[in-house]
Design brief:
- The chain contains 4 helices and 7 strands.
- The protein is α+β, with helices and mostly antiparallel strands.
- It has a domain of 114 residues: Gcn5-related N-acetyltransferase (GNAT) (Aminopeptidase), CATH 3.40.630.
- The chain has a 7-stranded mixed beta sheet, sandwiched between helices.
- The longest helix is centred in the middle third of the chain and has 18 residues.
- The radius of gyration is 15 Å and the shape is globular.
Length: 178
Amino acid sequence: MLFPYTESRRIALRPAGAADGPQAYRVLFRAGRAGLPLLDQFCESFGRRLAACFLIHRVDGDDAPIGLGTLSDLSPAGHLRAEVVLTPGQPEELLGEASALIVNFAFAMWRTRKVYLHATDADPASVGFGGEHAALARAEAVLEKHTFGQGRLWDVHVFAVHREQWDTTGVDLLKQLV
């Protein structure tokens, strides 16, 4: 049985609610997220249609969030979408830790079959699963010219983490982190 860890040795996932909208907006703005609405509009809808939402903090740092992690509502087919965004300048390993905690949380809390992660980069490291853990995030689709940012259209690469593989390989990864 999986445990829904929300902390590793270096980061902590702290539940975020409606009052945390301005902090979440700052994280997304600093990360260069294209298409953000005005702050008031963002805060008004912050957290809707999400099963879980976390501000990501360094365990040894100040209290300012370094990222945002979200999980969509679970579909009837047992799928959900995870999103992990870190502010610029964070070590690459922290993206991996945050992604592992978010994905594990989804599998531990619900009858999730697959967790989807989207990126404009074809490398699984762009969603936090690089190096020896790249096989955990399987490429499932490419949505060509699907999103607009920085004056151009970008492909969106869809990766999926499957429960069967997480129950074996993912658990070993978590043991290294917590």
